[in-house]
Structures are given as structure tokens and as C-alpha cells.
Structure to design on (351 residues):
């Protein structure tokens, strides 16, 4: 018998716990599920469960995140070619996703259970709106009048997400009360919604010149659902979960952007971040053509490895740091509000 390394054994046990938890949560619901029963199903000790997950809620978020990330894509997705057909396709993908699964019925009650998860979820929702907006804008660019601030479709994306999340909540709380075809039709109609939406430029942030090697680890891009090594020129933005909406500041510069989502409590909040972003992006990949996928990589940097590569050794939910990468070197750095936008512009570098 081949002896497993410590890391391999831990990964195997983690997978067994997740498999057992899926069955327990599906049969008994989150509230009535028992860690002892999950341990028995996994043929492990209670201690082995807690060595992988700090609590039942963290395990629940991880189960839903894994289901969202591993959901099989249709062999021949019917992607839209304009906003109307793309939003209809997104709604169809959404109402057949984990968001409508009875297993997810306790998600929102657990999200709103305390201020920490509420704040993180609110920013994750904002991030989803930015990603959906970028996809919609790629299909049908929005022109602003001369001299006006850049136009965007974030507010329209927020309305669409409100409709989809609301439909999911009703479907899990009162099965049969929501007609999926009506949700699809409503989202298609929202394509014609006109809102006065523009992107407000951020405040200037101080930018420092730097000369450091850039050697990022391989990471999983949640937008495309694939492993990549973000080693090309561009901007890397390290944002705590309470600062995620700030990614738009970097994206609007036109640079290639990699977002590293970080948190001070990765065991619980990192799975929630994976879940919320994967749920939307799985639908985007089914509903929008490749050319319209958001031009940003989104990484759940639960271990902080990408942040450390960017020179951010410690992180919290309030972290906001950006670096500019050129030819394998970090050449500029900014911190605080507006960092993602400022670091792209060399004329604001301060020595």
C-alpha cells in the first residue's frame, strides 16, 4: 500500500468530509445537520472534521462552493448574441444552478446571521454586478455624451441580480411558487431598461515606484474556471472582502487586471467568496460568448499566496493594495482608496 503524505491524507479526508456533508445537509438541512453524523458518514473522527473546517457554517459554505464550481456545463450552451438573449440564457442557467437547489435554502439566513458575513456578501454582490456589467457592455457598448463621465451598466446588472437572487429565495422558501419561464422572460425584458449610470472616477492615491521580481503562483481564475499563472504585464489588485467593489477602478483603466480576494477569516469567508463568484461566472460562461467574458481574473486567494507575491505579507477584509507589473517586475505600488486606478497611471508616481 502506498503511504500518503500528510498533505495528501488531509486532502483525502477533506474530500470525504465534503461528500458526507452534502448528504447530511441534503437530508436534514443546515440547522438539523450534526457534525458527529457527518464524521460518522465520512468514517472519521469529530476532530478530523474540525481540523479541516472551523465550524458547521464554514463547512456548509464550502459544500455549496464546491457544487457551484464543479457543476457540469452543457455540451452545447445556447449563448446570447445581444443583451436580451444573453440575459435570458443567464436566467435559464441560474434557475437550474445550485442557487435553486433545496440544499441552498439556508444560505441567506446564514449570510445575514452576523455583520461580518453580511458585509462580505454585500461586496461580493457588488463584484458580481461589475462582472455582469462588463459582460453586457462587451455585447453592446454604452456611449456617453462628449465630456460626460464614462457610461456603464452596473445599475442594470444590479437589477438583474436582484431578480435572480429573489427568484432563488422564493424557489427555496416556497417550492413551486416561481415559474422559471417567467424569470427568464423578465430578465430578457430588463435588457431594455435604461438607467442613468456612469462611473465616478476615484480619488487619487499615492503611487510609489518599485523594482521587485514578480513570481506569482498558479491560481484558479473563477471567471473562466481554469488554472492560470498571472505572469504577464498588467495590474494586480489585492482587495479584502469588504473592499471588492474597488476592482472597477482598475478595470476601467483598460489594463489587464487580476483581482486577488483576501480575508482575515479565510476558513469561513473564502468558501463564501468562491460560491458567490462561481455561481455567477458559471452562468456567464453558459450565457455569453467568449468575447464578452469579463476582462478580469478573479482569484480567491484564501492562503494569501498571490498577495504575498505582490508584496502584501498580511491581509484583512479591509486590504486595498495594487501593483503594476511590467516584464516580470513589480514597477509601481499604491495603497488605499483609488489604488487600482492610480497604479495604472505613471504620471502619478511619487518618490
Amino acid at each position: 500500500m502506498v503511504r500518503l503524505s500528510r498533505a495528501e491524507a488531509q486532502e483525502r479526508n477533506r474530500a470525504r468530509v465534503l461528500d458526507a456533508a452534502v448528504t447530511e445537509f441534503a437530508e436534514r438541512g443546515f440547522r438539523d445537520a450534526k457534525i458527529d453524523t457527518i464524521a460518522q458518514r465520512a468514517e472519521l473522527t469529530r476532530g478530523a472534521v474540525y481540523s479541516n473546517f472551523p465550524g458547521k457554517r464554514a463547512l456548509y459554505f464550502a459544500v455549496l462552493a464546491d457544487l457551484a464550481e464543479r457543476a457540469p456545463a452543457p455540451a452545447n450552451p445556447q449563448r446570447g448574441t445581444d443583451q436580451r438573449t444573453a440575459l435570458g440564457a443567464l436566467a435559464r442557467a441560474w434557475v437550474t444552478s445550485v442557487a435553486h437547489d433545496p440544499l441552498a435554502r439556508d444560505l441567506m439566513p446564514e449570510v445575514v446571521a452576523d455583520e461580518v458575513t453580511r458585509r462580505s456578501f454585500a461586496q461580493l454582490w457588488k463584484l458580481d454586478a461589475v462582472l455582469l456589467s462588463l459582460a453586457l457592455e462587451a455585447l453592446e457598448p454604452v456611449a456617453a455624451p462628449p465630456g460626460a463621465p464614462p457610461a456603464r451598466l452596473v445599475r442594470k446588472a444590479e437589477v438583474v441580480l436582484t431578480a435572480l437572487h429573489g427568484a432563488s429565495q422564493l424557489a427555496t422558501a416556497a417550492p413551486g411558487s416561481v415559474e422559471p419561464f417567467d424569470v427568464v422572460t423578465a430578465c430578457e425584458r430588463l435588457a431594455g431598461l435604461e438607467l442613468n449610470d456612469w462611473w465616478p472616477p476615484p480619488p487619487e492615491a499615492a503611487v510609489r515606484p518599485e523594482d521587485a521580481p514578480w513570481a506569482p503562483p498558479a491560481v484558479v481564475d473563477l471567471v473562466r474556471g481554469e488554472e492560470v499563472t498571472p505572469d504577464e504585464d498588467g495590474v494586480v489588485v489585492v482587495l479584502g472582502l469588504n473592499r471588492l467593489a474597488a476592482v472597477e477602478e482598475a478595470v476601467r483603466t483598460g489594463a489587464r487586471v487580476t483581482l486577488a480576494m483576501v480575508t482575515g477569516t479565510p476558513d469561513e469567508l473564502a468558501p463564501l467568496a468562491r460560491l458567490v463568484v462561481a455561481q455567477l461566472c458559471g452562468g456567464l460562461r453558459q450565457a455569453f460568448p467568449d468575447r464578452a467574458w469579463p476582462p478580469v481574473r478573479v482569484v480567491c486567494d484564501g492562503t494569501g499566496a498571490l498577495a504575498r507575491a505582490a508584496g502584501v505579507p498580511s491581509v484583512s477584509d479591509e486590504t486595498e493594495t495594487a501593483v503594476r507589473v511590467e516584464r516580470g517586475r513589480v514597477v509601481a505600488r499604491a495603497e488605499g482608496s483609488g489604488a487600482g486606478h492610480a497604479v495604472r497611471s505613471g504620471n502619478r508616481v511619487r518618490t
